[in-house]
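Field reference: sequence -> structure
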Amino acid sequence: MTEINMRKPEYYTNRELSWVKFNERVLNEARDKKLPLFERLKFLSITASNLDEFFMIRVASLKDMVNAKYKKPDISGMTPEEQLLALTKETHDLVNLQYSTYNRSLIPLLKQNGLNVVMSHEELSEEQAAFVDSYFEEDVYPVLTPMAVDSSRPFPLIRNKTLNIGALLSKKDEIDFATVQVPDVLPRIVEIPGKEEKTVILLEEVIERNIEKLFLNYHVICAHPFRIMRNADLTIDEDEAADLLKEIEKQLKKRQWGEAIRLEVEDGIDKRLLQIIRKELKIKMDDIYYINGPLDLTFLMKMYGMEEFDHLKGKSYVPQKPKYLDPERNIFEQIREKDILLHHPYETFSPVVEFVRAASKDPDVLAIKQTLYRVSGNSPIIAALAQAAENGKQVSVLVELKARFDEENNIIWAKMLEKAGCHVIYGLVGLKTHSKITLVVRREEDGIRRYVHLGTGNYNDSTAKLYTDLGLLTCAEPIGEDATAVFNMLSGYSEPISWNKLALAPLWLKDRFLSMIAREKENAIAGKKAHMIAKMNSVCDPDIIAALYEASAAGVKIQMIVRGICCLKVGIPGVSENISVCSIVGNFLEHSRIFYFYNGGKEEFYLGSADWMPRNLERRVEILFPIEGEALKQDVMHILETQLADNVKARILQPDGTYVKMDKRGKEPVCSQEQFCEEAVEAARPPMDVLSDRVFIPEERVRDYE
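Structure field:
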């Protein structure tokens, strides 16, 4: 074969621009007229939440690089400054499309379906205005803190992501600036009583209508809402931090006051008012977003929660009983009989909770060890771990304090677990522990047995209803030995010379992936069948992508299911003609990581916690684990094949970097997520002779794509 340079910048897509394409795919769900109306509201809210985090972390990081005069290009050949310029255009276009969708499509449809969203307080009828004014005086006015700016009162600190109303005031020919924060302790959606349709108005409109009551003896020239985004990327010098917990607590406070990097203002804002805000916040013109509608569309998730409109939402799905588990039997007995594969949210997360809860109560359990990255607000797993410690068991928990935007939550859990008597580890210096593993050590008649749970997703019972993930329950001795080695490595300084079954980042995992990709390439060169399938959230590691290009050039068939960022390009002649990429954005957030290698007929299946990103492979503790039972291998292959056949929610990456829906003319529609729901319900259905009438009560569903 002719030697080809697989590292050419033109062979790679910029990571940040690829992320914008992903958020466009989420936005396309909000624009899909086939979806129920309130599902479209939900997806539009998700795009706004995603964009907030993107600015606070990724755009903020690029701005830091530019300020530091860092000019090294990324894998696509773009410098930080060039990336910012490109992102400015792309994000402005994305925001314009968000509000076009909101104003032209969703608002009229809401009106048609009995929900009137008042766009401006000037639209109110006399009766409605009287209610709004009364609500302001009784419920809103006591909570507000108007802040004037003059020689004795400096410009106030505007907190990150808060919604504010800026005003220009006049008195004796002088013009002054004032601002008031829209309080987040009050509901942003205010219902106006009425007999016919349901009418709502946003809190900022209520305040703006009554703003003169906040500044008596002044004439209010104008009042407009504004919102800022600040740099929220924590910078922690772990080597210098004597106490990591205290250092993170200190840095969390700074997150509210980081450098302002984005300003959202109402379209048509008074130029004098904008100039004052711009000057005080040191915002560049390119970083101003003129919004034709309400600022911060994340409020739409609250609107989605309105119970009166359940008929405008998708059917709620209740996670089913796992097909490999009997909830009436002892969970340890069942794991001893066979490895158990769990597929969430199609199957309930309850067995994972029960695994820890049963271990906490079992008198034969000696120790429980677990890693926690993100947990729910009222976590039953945390409660079970605390109970286990109180029951006298050895409990070791690694709580990752550096889990972005969950730092504060994790600090609370860490302190609680310590008080209960657990041994708490705060993670490793310079690394995030992102692996998902639980080890239960149990004394049995034939000696000590180790039970292990390994997963692709977090130990979070709430997100387990929303994210697609896989988990394995096993007591295989080789994995048990590896699990013990993992926790010894996390709690001390012990690094095993070799592993039985597991592969860990940051020391071994990347080389393992590169080795397995190279093996497929060598088989292809030898004229053998060579095939691999990889499903993950993101792929942007240059070494992995270069290896995939080499394998593709050698003839390996490579099928990829990548939900989000994809820096790899398809269809490059002689480079990536054998690579296909699809992205599935559906009702659930695709989160599982699955890897399949044909391996000359000796097929291998792996699940893991890591995406193909430098941060996962080089700067995090991640785990890759094999699926070895034939029945379980078939289950995993069925998942991959069903997703590759998806022609409803899947979008296919094109050589020009765009994503298009699959042409399904003449084909049966396949929606992988719906199919998995149906299969889980069927597998959980009792025999005909014990069937009884059932009532499924829809669970509250709060979607989170961040």
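Note: The chain has a mean pLDDT of 91.
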